[in-house]
UniProtKB/TrEMBL annotation:
GO molecular function: ATP binding; identical protein binding; non-membrane spanning protein tyrosine kinase activity
CDD domains per the UniProt record, alphabetical: BY-kinase (cd05387)
Name of the top EC class for this enzyme: transferase
Entry keyword Zinc-finger: no
Alphabetically ordered keywords of this record: ATP-binding, Kinase, Nucleotide-binding, Transferase, Tyrosine-protein kinase
Primary gene name: capB_2
Gene3D superfamilies registered for this protein in UniProt: P-loop containing nucleotide triphosphate hydrolases
Transmembrane segments: none
The name this protein goes by in its record: non-specific protein-tyrosine kinase
Amino acid sequence: MAKKNKNITPLYTYDQPKSTISEKFRGIRSNIMFSNANAEITDIIVASEKTAAGKSTIAANIAITYAQAGYKTLLIDGDMRKPTQHYVFDVTNNNGLSNYMLGRAMYQDAVKETFVANLFVLTSGPIPPNPSELIGSEKFKTVYQQLKQEFDFIVIDTPPVTSVTDAQLYAINVANCILVIDSEKNDKNEVKKAKELIEISGAKVIGVVLNKMPKDKSSNYYYYGDDSND
């Protein structure tokens, strides 16, 4: 089983489970669970409108809260351009999503157990020359449907929405999105554009995490439910 890398992304929900920040993440989990009255939400993409908003930290901590609640959870590093989750969970990235899709890696090699009970990670795998083509292929749809049969909940960490089309392509297969926004460095028009691009792809932005709040606030993370009037 992998060990936590203490020098990478802060995993508050694992290291400080009784902290205020961890409670905020559990609140995010609860909001996701109750955001759809018609059917249980079993997968989400975590996206941002730009780089450095902290989406990978948010994705990892949300995944941990689901695992802590007893859900067999899979965190997919869907960023095959600048992957980070293999560093966060201190696992190898020789085998992962890219070569698993192409049939060049076995399931047991690509999907890795983590130091968190019930949490598994599917790293990006070797960086391919054509990430968008792979994500938009029938092979991804087939692999993803197989993974949905294996896990109770799936979180996909995607590249920034307005930079490349990858997040939109994931959104075709995943109905729900959490959008992460840097509270101090954001462009309202770019945020609106990111939301529109996700929705055009067929997914719904069910909530927003306002990240990197000033230190004088009670917590670094706030959650807002979907508002169709925004």
